[in-house]
Design brief:
By secondary structure, the chain is α+β, with helices and mostly antiparallel strands. Helices cover about 35% and strands about 20% of the residues. Strands 10, 11, 12, 13, 14 and 15 form a six-stranded mixed β-sheet that branches.
């Protein structure tokens, strides 16, 4: 019996309720790293092939193919089904965005701190546009000034995006009118750590390594820029590659700016560095990042 793509993904540890056959990459959680979206899959619109990878454990992409020959009549049926799938997914996404925005606008603003922020040794600077839903911290994911999704973070650090809403290309911006340096980071806590360490910077939170690369494709920077990458050295020991540094380098090359990453720490990001280094941590973070800042020089594409 042929094994369908959904069954293969679930058996590989992917956490998802359905497979979207639209020829696009989708990031999902995996059972080995439930706080991150380390899984990525793509299914062709005709449903005949799929590709997937767990960025934390797989060195290469895996391939799935449907069994059997595809007849002309089956191909026509597949194309019609693919068109119907695209229409259904577009409507589903539009409905989810409307529902998410209604939730977002009904939430109260964050006041007086949050256990997740306090647990990271950070304060409220950079948190002016955050909201709360019970004990959940709620962060807007925006593009072109519009809220396209929200991320919730529990007091113990569990992160979730609103189901069905797009995150690709979305950011959370911590801005300053006098900023002369723009810093790009993966996660929210990392962004706070950088923002609170460098008083003359703005911070662009991209939420994960894959989206960091996506944001870099369209971001038009001015002045100085630096990608403050995660150093996934523990992952590199397991699989031989460092996803945080690879994504950071791609993003920096795309925008023509600098890249900095924390070294000689037990954790992987700049928030971990502050937690580990104690009193002098913020000066250390500022010095390391500022030393790698470069003027934006976006590469021209043919």
């Amino acid at each position: 019996m042929a094994t369908d793509f959904y069954t293969v993904l679930v058996a590989s540890g992917f956490v998802l309720d359905r497979v979207i056959a639209d020829g696009k990459w989708h990031r999902v959680k995996t059972t080995d790293k439930l706080k991150h979206r380390n899984g990525a899959y793509l299914m062709r619109v005709d449903g005949q092939a799929g590709f997937f990878k767990n960025w934390a454990t797989d060195q290469d992409f895996n391939t799935w193919r449907a069994e059997g020959e595809v007849t002309p009549s089956q191909r026509l049926r597949n194309e019609a089904q693919a068109a119907a799938n695209r229409q259904r997914e577009a409507k589903y996404q539009a409905d989810q965005i409307r529902a998410m925005r209604a939730v977002w606008h009904g939430l109260p603003l964050l006041r007086g701190g949050h256990p997740y922020i306090q647990g990271k040794g950070l304060d409220m600077r950079g948190c002016s546009n955050l909201r709360v839903d019970g004990d959940l911290l709620v962060i807007p994911v925006t593009r072109d000034g519009l809220v396209m999704s929200i991320q919730t973070i529990s007091p113990d650090g569990e992160k979730r995006f609103y189901t069905g809403c797009p995150v690709k290309g979305g950011v959370y911006l911590m801005d300053r009118p006098s900023a002369v340096l723009t810093c790009f980071v993966e996660g929210f806590a990392t962004g706070l750590a950088v923002y609170q360490s460098i008083h003359q910077c703005r911070v662009v939170v991209c939420f994960d390594s894959g989206n960091l690369v996506e944001v870099a494709k369209y971001y038009q920077g001015r002045g100085l820029g630096v990608v403050c990458a995660d150093n996934d050295w523990q992952t590199a020991i397991r699989i031989g590659t460092n996803p945080g540094l690879i994504a950071g380098q791609k993003a920096a090359e795309s925008m023509g700016c600098g890249m900095a990453y924390p070294e000689d720490i037990e954790g992987s990001d700049w928030a971990d560095a502050i937690a580990e280094f104690g009193e002098d941590a913020r000066r250390w973070v500022s010095r390391k990042i500022m030393g790698k800042a470069l003027p934006f020089r976006r590469k021209e594409t043919a």
